[in-house]
Amino acid sequence: MKHAVIVALMLMTPVALLAAPKNSASIRFTETVTINGTQVPAGNYRVQWQGTGASVEASILQGKKVLATAPATLVNGKSDYDGAVELRAGENHSKILEAIDWTNRSLRFDQGNASSPDTSSASTAE
């Protein structure tokens, strides 16, 4: 009987992992962006976040290396974009990351809004 319970628990574990909320996604920056004062060059990255709602800590990773972290707000809901990056102009022609939009959620970064965002498209592979 113990053996049957253990086998049942082992079979249920992968299902529970699939049902867990996803806290990361892929993104491609088509140009260098500034995130919390750190410049991240154009390329493919993984965005990972911890927390929900307005209390999110987002990290930009290349492989296992964390390139930048910043506070953000996670907004769940449908979007017309999948992998869109919202940028605004910063000092010395830099592009400051304002938001990343996927089809079912967005990460909004508050990095001292001074001007309106300039939305640029980027592809993603979740």
Description:
A hairpin with a 5-residue loop joins strand 7 and strand 8. The chain is 14% helix and 48% strand. The protein has one domain. 19% of the residues are buried. It has 126 residues and is mainly beta. The protein has an eight-stranded antiparallel sheet, with no helix packed on it. The C terminus is likely disordered.
Number of strands: 10
Low-confidence stretches: 4-9, 12-20, 114-126
Give the proportion of residues in helices: 10-25%
- In total, the number of domains comes to 1
Q: What's the helix count?
A: 1
Structural class determined from secondary elements:
mainly beta
CA distance, first residue to last residue: 41 Å
Q: Tell me the β content.
A: over 45%
Judging from the principal axes of the Cα atoms, what is the shape?
globular
Strand ordering within the main sheet: 1-4-5-6-9-8-7-10
* Major sheet characteristics: 8 strands, antiparallel
Order of helices and strands: HEEEEEEEEEE
Evaluate the radius of gyration: 18 Å
Average the pLDDT over all residues and give the rounded result.
80
Descriptive tags:
126 residues; two-stranded antiparallel ribbon
Brief overview, please?
With 126 residues, this protein is mainly β.
